[in-house]
Please model this.
Amino acid sequence: LMNELIKYDEFNKIAALDSYTAQFSDAAGGQVKKVYENTNKYLIGERSLPKGVTITGSKTGTTASAGSCLVMAVTGKDNSRYIAVVMKSQDANVLYNEMNKVLEYTK
Model:
């Protein structure tokens, strides 16, 4: 899914933001304004990426059965593109520690 999403410029622009405000019409035709806050700790400045790695898209998620999960499209140190996935982490701290280990393998 991430491999397909990163083909779209609009997704890449929105995914790199710390928040996004959407305006749309609800089922009754009323106007709705909703702010979506990014929960990716790299993008909101709570964690640091390995040197030379840039995020081009990401999706976080947490459920009881899946644990803490993170899928990221990144550009590595040599400008190659990668999709990195960490799933079923026991908490956010472990999730980002594991993702840093994965991202260290980008060239």
